[in-house]
Amino acid sequence: MRIGAERTLIVYDPATKMESFVRTVEFAGNSDSFGFIVPTPSMPTFRELSESVHQDFADAMIPKPIYKEKTITFVAAKLFAEDMTEQEYYSYMKYDGVAGAGPSASPGPTVFDKVDFGEYEVTVLKAKSPEELQLWAKKNGFTIREEVKEWVKPYVDESFYLSAFRFKRPSNKAQVMRSPKIEIKFKAEKPFYPYSEPDFADVPDYLRELSLMIVTPKPIKVRQGLEDWYVTLAQCQNLNDRAIEVLQKEGFAVSKEWVLNTYSEETFHRLGSDLFIEPDPEGKTWIAQPVEHVKVKYRALPGFQYALIIAGLALAGWYAVARSQEKQARIDAEKNGKTS
């Protein structure tokens, strides 16, 4: 199976050190059953959310457009415009200052929990080695390739919990499947995103899209290993009332002081370290200005007003010519006087 576009929402509360990780991924291929592993530093819990949570939240953070009308009146309007003409003026963001179950006793990996969501199931376990995980996978219908063993080793060494997701394709499903919206909630000293993926040598390169939304009480910065993540922050603004309502409806405890940090990435490879999130003391929130839709109406003056204005223009022209002639006559008279 090939992984396509991904949308991820992370909500982290530093007071409780609890992270909510909600990811939806598109998978393309013909396999009837496939899976992936999500590592977490502590025991996770799972909760199904609304199918539209990502889109609803993203839409709520877009300011409502402002509609205005503007009338311009001038004499020659009918020569150029008769109908309403709509023009859109787009504003830009500006700175606004700094702103489960118990473990099993069977040999092999320790299984802590197993959750069935219908089309897919999740097994939470710990393994003492990648080889132990590979044996467990084989007994349970998974296939762990050598690239996955290499990728999972740092998590095994750090005693991470491994949540093994397996999707079961229904007979009526299309070739492209989208994972359900599941909140993976766990405790973490720092919020983190399991960004790194196995390096499969036989998988051809293809462009991957990632939309990452991180909700925290303050602006943040994202680091990959010891370096800042190369992706530029695209949005950093306080939650508005509509966005708060969307998240609270899904069970997230957020308020107006909290901030949405948005990143967008297109890449062919997801290698290297995972992403770790920390507060940015120099971070600034932005105010997203609403788009103004301005309807401009060009209005011609009535006929009798045309006559008055034309007469006024003619009078002004005659007066200007008369003044000019009078001035020229004085100049000529002065010249003649000096000559005589």
Brief synopsis:
This protein folds into 2 domains: 2-64 and 93-99 and 103-293, Immunoglobulin-like (Sandwich), CATH 2.60.40; 304-339.
Task: Show unreliable segments.
Answer: 74-106
Overall radius of gyration: 33 Å
Distance between the termini: 108 Å
Strand content: 35-45%
Number of helices: 6
> Portion of residues in helices?
10-25%
**CATH fold annotation of the largest domain:** Immunoglobulin-like
Give the second-level CATH assignment, the architecture of the largest domain. Answer: Sandwich
What number of domains?
2
Oligomer type: single chain
User: What would the average pLDDT be, to the nearest integer?
Assistant: 78
Class from helix and strand fractions: alpha+beta
Annotation keywords:
single chain, alpha+beta, 340 residues, eight-stranded mixed beta sheet, 21 strands
Description:
By secondary structure, the protein is of the alpha+beta class. The chain has 2 domains: 2-64 and 93-99 and 103-293, Immunoglobulin-like; 304-339. It is 24% helix and 39% strand. The protein has helices at residues 53-60, 77-80, 130-139, 146-157, 241-249, 303-339, and strands at residues 2-13, 18-28, 33-40, 45-48, 66-73, 85-89, 94-98, 110-116, 120-126, 161-168, 176-178, 182-187, 192-193, 208-216, 220-224, 227-228, 235-238, 259-267, 275-279, 284-287, 292-299. The strands form 5 sheets. Strands 1, 2, 4, 11, 12, 14, 17 and 18 form an 8-stranded mixed β-sheet that branches. A hairpin with a 4-residue loop joins β1 and β2 (18-28). α1 (53-60) runs antiparallel to α5 (241-249) and α3 (130-139) packs across α4. The radius of gyration is 33 Å and the shape is elongated. Mean pLDDT is 78; it is low at 74-106.
